[in-house]
Amino acid sequence: MQRREFLALSASTVAGAMMPLRAFSADAGLSGYKCLVNIFLLGGNDAFNLIVPSSNAEYNIYATSRQNLAVPQADLLAINPNHPDGASYGFHPAATALQNLFEAGDLAVMANVGPLIEPTTKDAYLSQSVALPPQLFSHNDQQDQWYTLKGKSPLSTGWAGRIADLLQDSTQAQQLALNTSLFGTTLFQAGDTSVPYTVGVGGANTYGALDAGAILGASRRAAFEAYLDRGFTNLHARALTEVHQRSLGTADKVNAALALVPQLTTPFPDSNLGRQLNTIARLIAVKDEFAMSRQIFFAAAGGFDTHDDQNQVQPNLIQDLSDSLGAFNAALVEISQSDSVVTFTQSDFGRTLTSNGDGTDHGWGSHQIVTGSAVLGRNIYGTMPTLEIGGADDATGGRIIPTTSVDQYAATLARWFGVAESDLAQVAPNLGNFAGQNLGFLG
Amino acid sequence: MRMGLFCVLFMLLSACGGGGSSSAEVPAPVATPPPTSSPPTTTPTPTPTPPPTDPVPAGISESEGHRFLIQSTMGVDHDDVAALQTLGYEQWIDEQLQLPASSQLAYLTSLPEPANNFQGQADRIDAWFRYAVQGDDQLRQRVAFALSELMVVSDSSALFNTPAGLADYYDVLAAQAFGDFRMLMEVVTLHPAMGVYLSMLGNEKPDASRNIRPDENYAREFMQLFTLGLVALNMDGSVKTDDLGEPIPTYNQQIIEGFAHVYTGWSFGGSTNFNRPSRDFTVPMEAFPEFHDTAPKTLLNGIVLPAGQTPEQDLAGALDNIFSHSNVAPFVSRHLIQKLVTANPSPAYIGRVALVFSDDGNGQRGNLGAVVKAILLDTEARTLAGDSGGKLVEPILRLVQLWRAYNASAVSGRFFFPSPEQAFAQAPLRSPSVFNFFSPAYAPPGEISDQGLVSPEMQITNETTIASTHNYLAVAVFLQNSSAADLRDDTITIDITSDLALADDRDALIDSVAMRLLGRAPSASLRIQIDELLNRIPANDADFRVAEVIHAIVTSTEFARQP
User: Fold this and answer.
1) Is B139 helix (H, G, I), strand (E, B) or coil?
2) Do B445 and A191 touch (CB under 8 A)?
């Protein structure tokens, strides 16, 4: 068999004229462009070592609890919150970019947030007189709580998916899904009626054998699409078909748009997270090609389940997060979108204050980070817990009870994004159980 | 320029990850001894044959036989259907149960020393494909693969540095695939690859003065993911609820802590002492009593292990405690059914298999050979599934199915395909975490979720991965067939010669390829698609016509699911 161009093998086919795009016409309710970027730290980030009390009294409590896992006091990167709580704090020494963002006013710390159904005190927890999210301390269950805010309900949509559902009418002009994931399918973005989109860090994957540049490619594509369109009686086949159709229907357009910004001048870390955020920045740069007015991106980094070798592993994890966030915020300045994008972290849970010798176990509450020019930064929101084993905030075994719920955190982000006040309870179903439904870090 | 095509293609594929791990992301190398020549730590266990749970149909049609082999092998070599028709299902299973396990470690030790761990892991993947595609112990390989997605370890971790350790771990799964589940629990628990992956290895007794508590990682995941699940189950797999209708948790945090204390004091076998590990990944872990907690430990169902036991006594007591829990039978049965037969087994089907798990008919609990047999012979497995039945084929098994159907091999004798996850979002022992590539409970939003059903493989099937899978299958068909140009010694090549003679007879060609790949005629809709393409290829261009038909079928949705 002679070698023939059976497959077209690059994205060059997208270099042709772009498809005509519909004119942008935002609904009256949604002005301008706003974007949320969720960075999920898979495995349970030990944020008690990321933002650490540095004043002597508080540091000593921390060091007594953390023992050989404590970050040395002298190594902490000092920060100067606009509204100090009496103690002082510093970032982990690997988080220089986070320190810079904080001091520049573009980063807020959300203290001790975690899945809750209603406000939970230690007494109520111990006497089991409070409703709790099921399966605390289990990775997948608590990830699902962060994604869905379902509490004890059987809810099967994510809160970003529900935001997309709520804004569907006012974002009809958008030619891409409101929700885009750079890290595969995620429950966070699953909607009732809205359908998220998944893209790779290298852009959208195209089907080489169906490409117009391949021998028979155009015919093959037409025949395959007609096959898909004829439909299937089997449920699993239909699920596959929908993904094929979305993939085939979107890839060329996405790649053509990305080709307009082949590279940003801002350097990103050469890490999985760095590459995801780089591609997100480029997609934001070409948002007008798709008439986007609202977007939520999902990115993720793994490896945070530091049961072992925490002192060796954690500095690299923090450095990657810090440098990636630093680069991403710099890139947003480069593309003049720093005011319109808010980036926030989530993670399964915090980790125990106790050590298992060289690592930590699954905890509950933990600190999260929010960045962007829209953020009222250089501040710590919520309440810093007492890092004392057996202390007032310790459920048991060094697992810290959250003082702010993920519902409050999500609602604060959703309100800024443009969800109507009256719709916030659909985004965060247990929001009504908490006072302080706006945590303030976005005004 | 034509030579460049091949390279560009691979660059494209390697740039298109599916959210999976990348070898560049693995932790920095840790000193590890090279693979040893030690044999696997266990040998196959012959399994007594229980009576069949369901009558076997008198005659097996070609399609029925093919469908059975989709469920029970890594991929169907259609030539095997005739033998199955002669033997019948039960005898075929019995013969498979007796075949010895292929050994990845033995194969690795026969290869030249790898230059680095990437090459070492590539050799391990080579071994997996070798036995998946060419091994005689097909049912064992299929069950071992299912077990590798239950009791997960992964080279996307510090285990990247021990290809031999992972090969040995897989060998243990293969050796125990038809054995006693209680024994499987033990060999997995004591395997140093698992010990490192879930940090039981090196786990120490508590030290209150330093706020040190035993590591809960293995205690938690062993129950949650490998044996019991989070909520109490009835024998049919349905969830037990309390008076308020809420699921009853299988255990609580205190019980996890009890098990965490059990799993203290273990390090590499052959270590001079606890803190000077041998780092030998091919022998079971060994106990160091001075690092083991000797206080009483509260386990499941109120069982308390007494104070002062040895590490071995505590471990045996803990594993017995879990093994006797009523969740094990439905939990493991459902996992294996979902991997072999259907994503959505009926409660009655789970219940029938779980009963065999509880008692194989000879009074033995946890006889996996009997469980596998019950799964495959069950009426629900042998009846053609309806519109919501069956399952998606795991993405990497679609490639193995193509390769087995067309007897793929390379001149080099190797299966050099080091990063299958970049095309298929899956590779053996390369899950992104202990939660496997996808959850058994994953339901894509929409009609599947709305009906309360699941389609687990859809969790790794998205706009990105579906295209990379499509692309690699196209490469495997068009660029890596026996008529293709520029084949290299290590190109894994499908043999299409027998179809070439049919190339100018459209219907005969389509029917032949479809029988090979699907075990039945293509759907009318797929035939229309193929006809349209064959109309554009001259009747005398045999290579092209054959490849086109194979390509259309392996990228069709009917090839991507098990009926």
Assistant:
1) helix
2) yes
Do strands A34-41 and A294-301 pair parallel, antiparallel, or not at all (unpaired)?
parallel
User: With 60 as the cut, is the pLDDT of residue A121 above it?
Assistant: yes
Return d(Cα B125, Cα B104) in angstroms, integer: 9
What is the pLDDT, as a whole number, of residue A216?
96
Q: How far is CA B177 from CA A217, B128, B180, B185, B373, in A?
A: 44, 15, 8, 11, 12
- Whether the per-residue pLDDT at A25 is higher than 60: the answer is no
Instruction: State which residue of chain A sits closest to B220, comparing Cα positions.
Output: A138
User: In chain B, positions 140-199, which contact chain A (CB-CB < 8 Å)?
Assistant: 198-199
Residue A358 and residue B202: Cβ atoms within 8 Å?
yes
pLDDT of A30 reads 76
Beta strand spans in B292-351 (E): 297-298, 304-305
CB pair distance less than 8 Å for B448 and A272: no
Residues B431/B152, Cβ–Cβ less than 8 Å: yes
Q: Which two tokens stand for residue A2?
A: 């002679």
Instruction: Judge contact between A73 and A63, C-beta under 8 A.
Output: yes
Reported ipTM: the value is 0.91
Question: Can you give the pLDDT at residue B67?
Answer: 98
Phi-psi region of B19 (alpha: psi -120 to 50; beta: other; left: phi over 0): left
Decide if B509 contacts B545 (C-beta within 8 A). yes
Quick check: pTM over 0.80? yes
Cα angle, residue B118 at apex, residues B117 and B121 outer, rounded to 5°: 80
Residue A272: band (very low, low, confident or very high) from pLDDT cuts 50, 70, 90: very high
- B224-234: average pLDDT: 98
C-alpha A170/C-alpha B127 separation (Å) is: 54
Q: How far is B273 from chain A (nearest CA, A)?
A: 17
Task: Give the tokens for residue B460.
Answer: 């790794």
CA dihedral of A38, A39, A44, A49, whole degrees rounded to 10: -120
Residue A379 β-bridge partners: A108
CB atoms within 10 A of CB B362: 11
Partner-chain contact A199 B463, CB within 8 Å:
yes
Query: How many residues comprise chain A?
Result: 443
Res B38 pLDDT > 90? no
Using the 8-state DSSP alphabet, how is residue B293 labeled? -
Q: How far is CA A369 from CA A73, A266, A442, B230, in A?
A: 21, 22, 13, 31
Chain B hits for A135, Cβ within 8 Å: 230, 249
Q: How far apart are CA A41 and CA A318, in angstroms?
A: 10
Chain A closest CA to B483's CA: distance in Å?
5
Q: What average pLDDT does this structure show over B496-508?
A: 96
Cα Dmax for chain B? 83
Q: Which of A25-39, B71-85, B263-277 bottoms out in mean pLDDT, i.e. has the lowest?
A: A25-39
Q: Angle at the Cα of A190 (from B16 to A406), degrees rounded to 5?
A: 110
Long-range contacts formed by A283-288: CB under 8 A, 24+ apart: A283/A180, A283/A199, A283/A254, A283/A257, A283/A258, A284/A35, A284/A332, A284/A335, A284/A337, A284/A341, A285/A260, A285/A261, A285/A335, A285/A337, A286/A257, A286/A258, A286/A260, A286/A261, A287/A33, A287/A35, A288/A24
Helices B328-340 and B368-377 cross at an angle (nearest 10°) of 50
pLDDT for the residue numbered A2: 55
Of A160, A164, A426, nearest to A292 (Cα)? A164
